[in-house]
Structure formats: structure tokens, C-alpha cells
Amino acid sequence: MPARFDQLPTDPDTLRALLLAERERHADELAAAYGEVERLIGIIKELQRYRFGRRAERLDADQLALALEDLEQTLAVAEAGEEKDGNKPTRLSRQRRINRGALPPHLPREEVVIDVADKTCPCCGGLKHRIGEDVSERLNWTPAEFKGLVLRRPKYACRACEGEVSQAPAPERLIENGIPTEALVAHVIVAKYADHLPLYRQAQIYARQGINLDRSTLADWVGRAAFALRPVYARLFEGLKSSTKLFADETTAPVLDPGRGHQDRPTLGLRPR
Predict the structure, then answer these.
(1) Which residues on adjacent β-strands are paired with residue 156?
(2) Considering the chain, what percentage of its residues have pLDDT values greater than 90?
(3) In 3-state terms, what secondary structure has residue 39?
(4) Once rounded to an integer, what is the mean pLDDT over residues 258-272?
(5) Mean pLDDT (the chain, rounded)
(6) DSSP for 89-123?
């Protein structure tokens, strides 16, 4: 048991010995935790290789993957604590996938120069000259941001002729008299159907940026976009009907239905095979 502060000895040598013993005890506990985590990871990976029992009792690979993620996070927390204390992490023999190396060339680059404040030589007082540099790349993320798109349509009139006014026509809008651009509506649709992000969650995300969009408003945007996409739907449907074989994916995807206390499970649909 660790000693209480009011029970610590006042003698420096005794206190130093107590601290060393406490550090060793912590290291032993951490090593034991590493061993247990490794054992559980081995069990999970072994279970991922098998399917047994009735269909309802089969192991869910996604659930196993989530458990594996939790264990990886536990290891990372322990290692970060050791590194913060200046100790070399007691890394296990397990190989971990780490995304390192050169970043993809298509990414835009933003350069930040971290220069010395004073380039004067402390010995002679002369100005130091540049002899090289160290360059490293990190993967950065700029959060998506809302911005107002202001459309100005100047009007022009002739000073000599009355009534001759010229102005560029207003561009068509997907949603008449609505505030969203086509890019924003497309983002909402992709987030809902490709990323399985319900509209009420999207509304919560937007609210954190100070944009209050009601769920019903987002639903109206999706519905009007669906109306505009009917020709695309018809063309895809014709392609499906012309296929010699169709694969029916009846896998259900759980979708939260707030306010009703249950989940809807729509199927994933049809696709050619």
C-alpha cells in the first residue's frame, strides 16, 4: 500500500528509498497490466478466426474489433504515462500497425518555418549564415467550416436611354429561396447515407459551430434533392434491370429512431452481381 503524505518520513535517505520502492512497485504493476492486455488481445484475435453456434450466437466481428481498439487505447495511455515520466516504455514484442512515412503527394502543403530568434554569434558578434535545415512532415486536419456565400448582381443603366437596365440573371437554386448551396446539400446527403450519420446528429454538429438548423429543415433539403436526382435514379435502375444477375443484400443496418424507443433496421438494397 502506498504511504500517506502525513506518514512520510522526514529523513531524505529514507524518503528516497521509499520513492524508489514505490516506482518499482508501479513498474511491476504496469508490466502485469501489459501482460494481461496482451493475453486478452491474443484471445480476441483467436476468436476472430472462428464462427460457432447458432446464427444468433455467432461472434460479431465488429464487437471484437471494438474490444481490440479499447485494449490498444489502454496500452497507449500507459505508454504515454511512461514517456511523460522520461522512462523508456516497456514495449512488448507485439507488432503494431503504425501509419508512418511520406504523406501522399496530392495533399496541399502549408509550410511553417521555426527559426531562431537571434542569429548573432555569441563569440565574435558576427551574423551566422544558414548551413542547412531539418524538414519533417505531419498530417494536419483543418475542421470544416461554414461560410456565407454572398452573391452580388450589379445593375447597369444607360444615362441617355431611360429604362435600359442590364443585370446578370440569378443562378438557379436547388432549393428555391433556400439558404443552402448545392455543395452543402450534397454534404448532408453523403453524411446521412454514406456515413450513416442521422440528421439529428448532423444538426448537433452544426449547432456546435453556431449554425442552428432544425432536423426538419435538413429533411426537407434531402427530400428536394431526391426529387432533383430522379433522372439519376431512373438511369441506375435501368442499369440494374439490364443486368443478368442481381445480388440482394438483405443485411440490416440498425438506425436510431429517437422518441420511439427502438431502432429501425432498413436493408442495404440491391446491386448488380
Answers:
(1) 166
(2) 28
(3) helix
(4) 56
(5) 77
(6) P---S-------SPPPTTS---------S--B-TT
pTM greater than the 0.85 cutoff: no
Is the pLDDT at 258 greater than 80, yes or no?
Answer: no
Mean pLDDT of 187-210: 92
Distances (CA, A) of 241 to 1, 236, 238, 267: 73, 9, 5, 19
- C-alpha cell recorded at residue 134: 531539418
DSSP lists the bridge partners of residue 271 as 247
